[in-house]
Amino acid sequence: MNPTYQNISYPGGMFDSASECGRAFGKISVTTDSLCFESPTDTLELPLDGISLKSGGAGNRMLFFTHDSFPTQTVFTGDHGILNNASLMSYSHIAGQAIRIREVKKQSRRILTAVIVLLLGCIYGIFQLKEPVVIATAKRIPLTWEQKLGKATVTQLKAGKPFIGDAEILEQLESLAKPLLSRIPEKQYDFVLHLAKDPEINAFALPGGHIVLNTGLLLTANSAEEVIGVLAHEAAHITLQHGLRQLIGTAGLYALVQTFFGDTGGLMAVFINNGTFLLTQKYSRDYEREADDRGWEYLIEANLDPRGMIVFFDRLSEEQKKDALNRVGDSLNFLSTHPATGERIESLRKKWEKLDRHPEYVSADQGFQAFKEKLKKMQDKSE
User: Fold this and answer.
1) CA distance 196 to 177
2) Cα–Cα distance list, 14 to 60, 62, 356 (Å)
3) Which of 173, 314, 322, 383 sits most deeply, having the most CB atoms within 10 A of its CB?
4) Are 204 and 337 in contact (CB under 8 A)?
5) What single DSSP character describes residue 48?
6) What sections of 161-241 are H helices per DSSP?
7) In 3D, which of 299, 274, 290, 271 has the Cα closest to residue 338?
8) pTM across the whole model
9) C-alpha closest to that of 162 among 205, 195, 211, 201
10) Which pLDDT value is given to residue 338?
């Protein structure tokens, strides 16, 4: 017996169908001519000549040794290091069985890798396809749903903060917006403007055509074109169904698929439970860029100077950086809910540079400065 092999042992066990215990655990060693199992209660030596080696168990992690001379007994181990044992591999029939086991193991790894890659690909595909499915689902939602959702959200907002109801002020605001909103091609939306008595520089769009403007935004704007630029951006959020798409995106894949195939119950539950909160949260940068692009198109189609959008975003961005205007202070929330990044502002500038012509734009003034003065007096009086 070669002493080199006596000191190598492998954890393992033995099944014995003829024994009352049936199973024992111990260690396995290999000599030049036998495979030996030893436990506190049992010992067994299987001659290497005629031994059979197979793999099995979960993931073929276990190795089983049997011999025709010992039909009721099987030695097993989970230590595949035994396949590198020189004495064991010196028998050609065992070496051949070990090669097949290794090939099966490699094949299993390849299959597992392929399955993992496939699953990751499916997960990636789901995320890649999610937005197109969200868009398609939003288009299936009846317009009456959008209108009711927007109206209900406005009602809830008005219950929590003051809104200006002065007919003359609202009429002047609508006159200011008319040159733009009347030219928007998506005629299914009847745009409704709401004026919140709030010093925060903010505005947001709600499904169905509702646009909420804060008094802080109107009083901060230096020109009617700036306000028109904001309105074009907000109107684009509505026609692109960003609010609705944002709600649908939070509904989860199951509710999304249900709605896509006509079952709207899951989506309605999301609307009821989270509508107001989700609709007043900031949009993704992708949505903001989409609204920039579509709003710019609306301004061009209406023959209104699109630079108002650039000026407003650019000026607010600079004010935020410098914190120069104390009267703005923490009220500069338009940039948090509509992040006007340098990238987006630069993109709008490039759009201006690429315009083939710079025509005489329709005046959007509509007595804007007088409107601001009246609005400011009304707000000061109420305070």
Assistant:
1) 16
2) 17, 12, 86
3) 173
4) yes
5) S
6) 167-181, 215-220, 224-239
7) 290
8) 0.62
9) 195
10) 57
